[in-house]
Design goal:
single chain; Alpha-Beta Plaits; four-stranded antiparallel beta sheet; Rossmann fold; 15 helices; 36% helix; seven-stranded mixed beta sheet; alpha/beta
Length: 428
Amino acid sequence: MTSWHGATPTLGNLCRVSLPVTDAPAAPQFDPDARTLLVTLNGDDRPGVTKALFEAASTVGAEVLDLEQVVVRGHLALSMLLSPGRDENVLVDRITRAGRAAGMRVDIEAGRGDNAPRRTGRAAVVVMGAPLETHQVAAVAATIADHGANIDRIRRLSRFPVTTVELDVSGANLADLRQHLALISHEVGADIAVAPAGLARRGGRLVVMDVDSTLIQDEVIELLAEHAGRAAEVASVTEAAMRGELDFADSLHARVATLAGLPVSVLDDVRDAVRLTPGARTLVRTLKRLGFTVAVVSGGFTEVIEPVARELGIDHVRANRLEVVDGALTGRVLGAVVDRAGKAAALREFAALEGLPLTRTVAIGDGANDLDMLAAAGLGVAFNAKPLVRRQADASLTVPYLDAVLFLLGISREEIEDADAGDAAPLG
């Protein structure tokens, strides 16, 4: 039988009291030489299989040490580790009979002891592809093995619109594994993210997004420039700035100058023309359901961004403001420009307001002016980004669906759809 060893305070005198480090009970001590049975069952899944197996085992009073079950395309694989007690032969017979009666293949292996304790260095490795190909998974598995880490469990997070699997890894050096898998990601063409596992995977977060070409498909300054007849000129400057070839603040002032004289009514036209990135509504809606805080930071303009943010229920907005005089744009920006440093500062400010450490933050962006923000966040995600950004981010997404960020956080497509169905909310 399992025994518990609680920690008892030692009283020396009134001034000396030795207290336990925690008020939780000590871990149960299982005899490493105790006989155990590893039972594995395989066959077609149907209701009642697990019930039949455990009802058969319960007649002998075996102790459950571990249990895991998975169903893939209707095929059930169940493994259980049991302490058989004194009636091992009876237990084996009854489990075998019950399994075969349910149409299952039953294998029972006798041994000694419980599972070996999992090693430290736990990480969640998410691999995503459209399609996800076997050579890509093979490359990831080989890299994990080369680092001396082990894949303990695997589960599928999504099949649509991309195939995503999450590998639960132990024995990993997080920083080294993340660095090497980033190289593998580029080599094999799969999106790969590495994050701490365990409690670090759970709890509240702050998610901060860029806007242009991230939350929305457009570049707002370019939509405005079309009204001024300067679209091509502005687009070339924007592209150079996003590649990091030009100072963002200087490039913004130059582009905004081309808008001088435009009537303020063009802002309404641009707001109507903005297109959300596929999956943007789903991403924000799901994050809010989880109780996360969502923010946007942009080198664009509040006049266009704030209405979009209000519609989506986004909590914080930081962007530039255009100067308007006598109903027309002056070609100038009011106040300090939200540039590369400004985006990182906004992330830190929002985290402080929400009482969250930076390790609980996620940043998503596509351009060079997002790099400081991505570096400051606990998880920096490059979304369909320039090569410079992909190389420096913690994770890179090359699929055109913004809600794929949810998979990087360990949230499955099934969980998203179940929540939508419960609220009768449309997918988007």
